[in-house]
Amino acid sequence: MCDLLCALPTATGGPTLFAKNSDRPAQEVQLVEWFPSHMDIATTAATHVSIAAHPHATLGILGSRPAWGWGLEHGVNTAGVAAGNATIYTTLDPRPFPDALTGMDLVRLALERSATAAAAVDTIRHLLATAGQGGSCHEGSRRPSWSSFLVADATSAFVVETSGADCAVEAVDRVRVISNRTTISAFDAEHRHPGQPVADLVDPRLRASRAVVSAEPVTVRSLQRHLASHDGGVGGWTICMHVEGPEHSEATTSSMVAELPVHGPPIAHVLVGSPCAGTYRRIQVEAPPH
Q: Is residue 289 part of a domain?
């Protein structure tokens, strides 16, 4: 489970803002790390598979990942592109598909290889077509899924929704939010899983997020308050998530709000754990001095 929001400069009166809560198994460790620019010689080893290396040096990234995996739940690169993903389910069952790139792998690869949000979309589409999507996104169990993505830079943002190798892309006009369901109208009509309980577990969070970005100007503080809130559901299925039970536990394990200015380095406000109980750390995203 995850919730993502973005607001372009027309809605903030300042830089583009991108925000995400990463909801994962409650006991899973998530790490916020700096990934410096590098050059892979022949292949890039992702979570389950290796793919052909990028022909150029990668961009540096500040990102958050589950400790067991390679891919990122969300991050910001030195070019000022932010990206994150959310699990979605469609009429296409992901379980029979072989291991390939996970949604988190695609987030990291898009940030490593893309200097604009539009380029990040192209990277995701290219990798879906050439390397494919598949494999578990959880340690110790096989729980594959498809992904939706929100990518943003200083002047633009896009939603990408996938079902296997199929995808749809929608440009953001002013503000946008996504969560754990298909939201692009035509793609939703064709691919939405009829048995997914979106009305109870997802739609209340979407409504809460839409209310936040509709209250302009959208600010870093308003997004942080939202990510720390217990709005949007019952039984712990809230924006800051706390779901406990013998068969399933889910909690917000990492959170980020990113400022993506036209000029100057991006700023990431990052937090590990529950936003309702923590404090965001402000980090300027740029390559460290030698």
A: no
Contacts (Cβ under 8 Å, ≥6 apart) of 137: 69, 87, 102, 103, 104, 143, 144, 145
- Rounded to the nearest 5 percent, the helix, strand and coil shares of the chain are 20, 35, 45
Q: Beta 250-260 vs 281-284: how paired, if at all?
A: unpaired
Q: What torsion do the CA atoms of 268, 55, 85, 265 make, to the nearest 10 degrees?
A: 20
- Above 80 in pLDDT, residue 286? yes
The single-letter DSSP state of residue 92 is S
The answer to the question of residue 124 being in a domain is yes
The one-letter code for the residue type at 284 is Q
How many other CB atoms sit within 10 Å of the CB of residue 42?
7
Closest CA to 84 of 251, 256, 219, 250: 256
Q: Tell me how many domains the chain contains.
A: 1
Whether 2 sits among the annotated catalytic residues: the reply is yes
- Which structural domain range is residue 256 located in? 2-284
d(CA 67, CA 272): 12
Summarize pLDDT for 227-256 with one digit per residue, the tens. 999 999 888 999 999 998 766 789 999 999
The HSE-up count of residue 166 (CA atoms within 13 Å, CB side) is 12
Position 19 in a domain: yes
Catalytic residue among 2, 6, 167, 240: 2
Amino acid at 235: G
